[in-house]
Amino acid sequence: MFSIRQLYILVALGYTALLFIAMLMLRAFWFYPQEVEQALYIQQNEVHSFLAALELRDQQLSSLSDDYAIWNQSVDFTDTSDPEYLSDNFGPETFDTQSLAAAAILDRWGKPLFYAGFAAEELIPEPDYLADWLSSDSVNFMPDTQISSIELINQLPHLVSSSAIRLSEESTDIHGWMILIRRIDPEFIRILADVSRLQITLTEPPYAAAFTNLRMPIQDVQAARSGCITNNAGAASLCVTMQHGNGAGPSLINTPVLLVFLLISIIPAIIFIMLLKVIIDPIEYALKFLNQNNSSGQVRPLIFSKSPHVKELVELKKAFNQLVMTSKRQQIKLERISNTDRLTDISNRRAFDEALDKSWRRIQRHPQSIALILVDIDYFKNFNDHYGHQAGDSALQQVAKALAGCTRRTDEIAARFGGEEFALIMEAEDATALNRIRQRMDDAIHSLHIRHDYSPASKELTVSYGIAWIRDSGPWLEEYEMKVWLRAADAALYEAKAAGRDCNMLQILSRDVPLTESPVLQQLPG
Hints:
With 526 residues, the protein is an alpha+beta fold. The protein contains 14 helices and 15 strands. The protein folds into three domains: 265 residues, Beta-Lactamase; 57 residues; 175 residues, Reverse transcriptase/Diguanylate cyclase domain (Alpha-Beta Plaits, 2-Layer Sandwich), CATH 3.30.70.
């Protein structure tokens, strides 16, 4: 008799064993051979890269020997042995500039007309090692046109290029042979390594009779490969050891394979944990979230860090979040009602006070030109007494709508301040902008054409307003309280009413003009 937990463990162990065997067989018969083939391909390309770099150096030397060989002066030298030709063309500077270790010129019968070596920045005329090599191998470097090879000269590998001396490339009349020789030393190999992007070291002679020919296709993957390049006679003349970038190649069972198996083998345990957690974790999270809402007094939507996969939990989250959204909409509606005047449907005194406080704090931090305007309907009591309160309410609604239409920016506000008074906060960057605001307000009120036969100021409903314009705000306002701004606008309104109404008065607040209880007022032109 097994428990569910024990049965699950047995099944998981059996699954893991079968999975390992299947994965090992798949790798042995499919992936591993492909990886070996790919590693061979990469290493073969690296060998080809080294050979191509060496071939490029060989071609450069062959081009140089052709340039010297197919030249009238070289042809003349084979006949005259003019020493001036040698001094002009085969001095120490030539050997150093062209990186030559030796050079030789043979006549048409293969007899040396000139040969010299170069070492330690000095020219060595007719060295013995070069004479020995010419006497033994020069016959192999007397081609019809051009030939190159890697040769052991003085028991050191050298790159040798020989070109037939003639008047032109098409000429078949050979006057001799131009032989140029470059030493293959560690510095030469380092340059090849940089070009081929490999780590290559030169193997010093003598070389064994049995060797791996680098020009032949490679047969196995090696981290370090030693091989040789043969001369035209088939003997090893240059041997190197190169470090392959992909190392010793793939192995049947390696660390990545074991890691993959380990990851796959824990799948049963993960499934078991998921079965335990898929329900409990979301419920615990939801409970903790609701407790936090209750403690903070906030109602926030329920958002799981990971979407639950249980239908009932998803439906519970949707139902709760719909309740939250309904509550939020009701809260927004209540806030709007609390900030809106019921009669005029514009912002009320509470909303204005909040906007005034926010504006005051903002203009202390940032330079700005802003105006606070208090508006009062002229002789509104007479209007109410003679036309009735219903007509008075209609007049208030029309004036409120007209004043609200004067605002342009989202941070501007038109509010009912109380009774027949209204208040506006508007940006006015200069006197011209302020005058446009004043004109906009006057036009808006006059366009209403509300009859008022009981007003001493006009036969139509008019307003008086006072403006407190802060011309250049900034930190200097921190020395004053917000009510100073409001008192300034109220004082300007008082003066406008005292001046006969249906007009407006302005007080400019600036860091250059001290704020007093008796402000200097200006009446804007009508």
